User: Fold this.
Amino acid sequence: MNQQTTITSQLARQEPKVVSLMVLPESAEEVALILEENFAPGMAPRLTRVRMPTGGRTTWSVPSSGGNEETDTLVGVVLTQHYARAYWHGEASPGQAPDCSSQDGITGVGEPGGPCEKCPLNRWGSSPKGGRAKACNQTHRLYLLRSGENLPILLALSPGSLTNMLQYQTDLSREGLSIKGVVTSFGLVQDRNKAQQVYAKVAPTRVGILSEEDKAKVRAIGIALAAVVSGVAIEPDYSPPDNAPDEGEGERDGRLPDAPPPVTTPPTNIPRPDATGLTG
Assistant:
């Protein structure tokens, strides 16, 4: 039995139950009003970013004012989510805006821009590092509200985690549950790509179901948050081998938008972007 089957089987064996381990804001309306008043159109909160660990580590590192907090799991409720894509011409450094990005994983803004599905940088094998990887990085952004907090953390899943996450969401749908109505524990497990490089991927598990009152709160906060997170800057959220050649297979298994057929060499006709084309 493979690892994903084990995770899915464990999820199926859990009995749905209402839990009270989540301490949510007392008033969803107050949180929505605070977001509206603090962040004008075009502004976005500077959320705590939790990146996928490198080197196959199976612990999360959560930035805080007192230093990084190491934890095996991240537990909370997903307020909102979306795919994101980003392309950097050359090596990207922390905080560097991408040359082209997409906040919905469908349409790119910048250079080259346009429909992501048709972009040559979205082809298998387009990475200048060789192999089957793509030049354009894809992530699944999750805005996770932890117990007792008013703002979520931003968790950006790398390509190798997309299949596990989509399987989890499919399992929830099969049970008639919304990801916004359950408490999810995000663990990490190790895997290897075809080059035998070890990397970590997410292993989400449902640990409880919210009450109807708390579900309504989460949905209301999520709607308010979705209006402002589109302005949250896209930065490098993971490092190789998380975009290793064979990890992209998960994107097809998860039925993400298909890219053009693989190419054997990186595209050479992509123009170097002008600085004015950068987006955050």
